[in-house]
Specification:
Layout (H helix, E strand, L loop, with lengths): L6 E5 L9 H6 L4 E4 L12 H12 L4 E6 L5 H5 L4 H17 L4 E4 L11 E5 L5 E5 L1 H12 L10 H12 L3 H12 L11 H8 L7 H22 L2 E4 L18 H10 L5 E6 H5 L6 H7 L4 E6 L1 E4 L5 E4 L8 H17 L8 E4 L22 H19 L11
Parallel strand pairs: 1-2, 1-12, 2-3, 3-4, 4-7, 7-8, 8-9, 9-12
Antiparallel strand pairs: 5-6, 6-11, 10-11
Helix pairs in contact: 4-9, 5-6, 12-13, 13-14
């Protein structure tokens, strides 16, 4: 690992991941972002299970550089249920991770669903496939599958017409596949949720606005940040994906003003950010290089990918160095922040990143991808990692007097 570059990582979903650890090493990564996905949301992670995962990774020459994720239970977002037990369990998990030397924990505060796409298999002109979000297609889900009261008011007449045309053109099997692709893609696990389950999850949020959700988020941070500080753990909130309201629910981690509110409310060194260029980049109002500089001291991990926004509000996952993200400017700013931390003598100066949401391409197109995690086949992410590695070397090349950098 060259001491001027960020730590190259891959996301790994655990022993059931179709991408084995050996492939991650062969891609050039030295670390992984992973989690104990088998543990139910809200339950504490046993220290022995954390140690077993560390030992497994070490046996393949890999570090556990960031937890992705320790999920936040829905009751903590709605403010209902046994909150004290859930907060205590979260604090215990942080204590166990810190005791085992795992120092960065990514999480999100997105209500009801995790990240949302309407097409998990969108074909690009070159024949590769990617993830795509189409607001008219999501309207079809809301209006005809979920049948959420009041949903029609969230869409334009054109979107509603497009939604009906899209829905009417599908067979019953197509509709089922489409619906399941939206409601059951929680990272690393299949919860087996139904449309009825989503309606039940929505019910506790009735009448909740952004202020109410933010209040619950701040209560969570006020409770767990002291525990994170004691454990030597840094929390890194993942931005909303997509970064705008869906399901009639507010989004409160989508833009700079949202981050300002959270960091000002709980000014703890443990209260930080996972800088996801794809999530933030899907909002055209976000200036990503400026945001890296603005929140540099709060960034504890990075997801590097790019989206291309379309005129109708849709967006898809572009190549890592294409799309709407100024990736050279973002990576330069991240490297500069890493340099500042190193000069300041911080032991935790190195930033870890991973290439996010690669395309299905080449040999992966010929494989049975049943059980694969959407966006996380191997070859597309390996291409992204190679491109980002080359970008980092190019940005730091002059500083080394023209010498070729080698890990």
């Amino acid at each position: 690992m060259h001491d001027k570059l960020m730590e190259e990582s891959f996301r790994w979903y655990g022993p059931g991941d179709p991408v084995p650890l050996a492939f991650i090493r062969q891609a050039g990564a030295t670390a992984v972002f992973t989690a104990l996905h088998e543990i139910p949301y809200g339950e504490p992670w046993p220290r022995a299970a954390i140690r077993a995962r560390l030992d497994l990774l070490a046996g393949h020459g890999l570090r556990w550089t960031a937890v992705e994720s320790v999920p936040v239970h829905e009751d903590l977002k709605t403010g209902r249920g046994d909150l004290r037990k859930l907060l205590d369990n979260y604090a215990r998990t942080l204590a166990h991770l810190g005791a085992e030397g795992v120092r960065t924990v990514i999480y999100n505060f997105m209500p009801v669903l995790d990240w949302i796409r309407t097409d998990l298999d969108h074909e690009l002109p070159d024949g590769s496939r990617c993830l795509l979000y189409n607001p008219a297609h999501f309207a079809a889900f809301e209006l005809f599958a979920l049948q959420r009261p009041g949903a029609a008011a969230d869409y334009t007449a054109r979107q509603r017409a497009a939604a009906k045309k899209f829905w009417d053109a599908m067979t019953a099997a197509d509709r089922d596949r489409f619906t399941r692709g939206i409601i059951d893609v929680f990272p690393g696990c299949k919860l087996g949720l139904t449309v009825g389950d989503i309606r039940a999850r929505l019910a506790p949020y009735a009448g909740m606005d952004a202020g109410g959700l933010r209040k619950n988020f701040i209560r969570f941070l006020e409770a767990v940040c002291p525990a994170a500080e004691r454990a030597g753990v840094r929390l890194a909130v993942h931005p909303d994906d997509p970064p705008f309201p869906v399901l009639g629910l507010p989004r409160i981690v989508s833009r700079a003003a949202d981050l300002d509110a959270l960091f000002q409310a709980v000014d703890s060194p443990a209260n930080g950010l996972c800088f996801c260029t794809g999530s933030l980049g899907a909002n055209p109002d976000n200036d990503l290089p400026q945001m890296v500089n603005q929140y540099a001291a709060r960034i504890h991990a990075a997801h590097l990918r790019s989206t291309r926004r379309l005129a109708d509000g849709a967006f898809f996952e572009a190549d890592h160095l294409a799309g709407g993200v100024d990736m050279p400017a973002v990576v330069r700013a991240l490297l500069d922040e890493q340099d500042r931390r190193r000069r300041a003598g911080r032991a935790d100066w190195r930033l870890a990143f991973r290439p996010d949401h690669g395309h299905v391409m080449m040999d992966d197109l010929q494989k049975d991808l049943t059980g694969a995690n959407p966006g996380y086949t191997c070859i597309g992410r390996m291409r992204g990692l190679a491109e980002l590695r080359g970008l980092m070397h190019g940005l730091r090349y002059p500083a080394d007097g023209g010498k070729i950098l080698r890990s």
